Amino acid sequence: MSAGLFITFEGIDGAGKSSHIDTLAQAFRAAGRLVTLTREPGGTPLAEKLRQLLLHDAMDALTEVLLVFAARRDHLRTVIEPALARGAVVLCDRFTDATFAYQGAGRGFDLGVLSQLEQLVQYIQGPEADFMRNPDMTLWFDVAPHIAAERLAAARAPDRFEAEPLAFFTRVAAGYADRARQAPARFARIDAAHPPAQVAAQVLAEVAARGWLPAARDSAA
Ligand SMILES: Nc1ncnc2c1ncn2[C@@H]1O[C@H](COP(=O)(O)OP(=O)(O)OP(=O)(O)O)[C@@H](O)[C@H]1O
Ligand SMILES: Cc1cn([C@H]2C[C@H](O)[C@@H](COP(=O)(O)O)O2)c(=O)[nH]c1=O
Question: Which Gene3D superfamilies does this entry report, sorted A to Z (predicted)?
């Protein structure tokens, strides 16, 4: 059985994450891997209820933080860990980097408290040893906030986060850049301003570069 693989998709709203997650899922399936596609906040019945509150109900930053981590704990325990244990590739649309970017950089919430909650929530008691669950790789869709805003304006009615002003997303984007600087081996920066086909090709190339998918010229042969 292959070892499980945990890959997260991150970036500001409108960067194009959700548009490309299926492309990577198809590539892994074509390579014979089991794939679990999921998202945060959400991914379980309980966490999807919390998602609705987070996206649509007014609340202060601490409440927001507690809800995203509560949703994450349920998601990790009941979906992510069991899938990884089965040897699946888990592709997750957002994870804890989003909390540091949105609640930390965007809302100005204390980063030290976020780190403590991260340690608490992602602590897993394994069959052999306890460990911290972190993504194996994070695809960071980086795009200028004004481009992302134009895409979203054309796409759908905004939720509570998407309705935030450009200055909020400028801070969130800087928050992602900080997280990428802190974990350069985990992050792959995707130039999400490019047209969709080019973005998809870069996503596949970054994953192939880690040896988890055949390189494009091999799969064409
Ligand atoms: N590279 C691209 N160039 C132009 N438009 C794009 C590109 N990628 C995605 N889009 C369009 O931008 C809009 C937002 O894309 P998408 O929903 O994938 O972004 P997202 O990062 O998942 O946003 P959110 O986090 O808010 O769900 C969609 O209408 C999509 O078709
Ligand atoms: C995980 C997580 C998410 N958010 C925000 C970011 C987005 O605006 C929404 C989710 O919507 P999407 O269309 O599925 O991207 O939630 C957050 O603020 N903090 C988090 O930890």
Answer: P-loop containing nucleotide triphosphate hydrolases (3.40.50.300)
- This complex has an ipTM of 0.97
Q: Tens of pLDDT along 95-152?
A: 999 999 999 999 999 999 999 999 999 999 988 899 999 999 999 999 999 999 999 9
What distance in angstroms lies between residue 206's CA and the mean position of ligand 1's atoms?
A: 19
d(CA 217, CA 171): 39
Complete domains list, the chain, with CATH? 5-216 (3.40.50.300)
Separation of alpha carbons 184 and 203, rounded Å: 16
User: Which residues have any ligand 1 atom within 6 Å of their CB?
Assistant: 11, 13-19, 151-152, 155, 162, 192, 195-196, 199
CA-nearest residue for atom 4, ligand 2, is: 98
Distance of alpha carbon 4 from alpha carbon 21, whole angstroms: 17
Residue-wise pLDDT tens digits, 180-218: 999 999 999 999 999 999 999 999 999 999 999 988 765
State whether the beta carbon of 51 lies less than 6 angstroms from ligand 2.
Answer: no
Nearest protein CA to atom 3 of ligand 1, as residue: 195
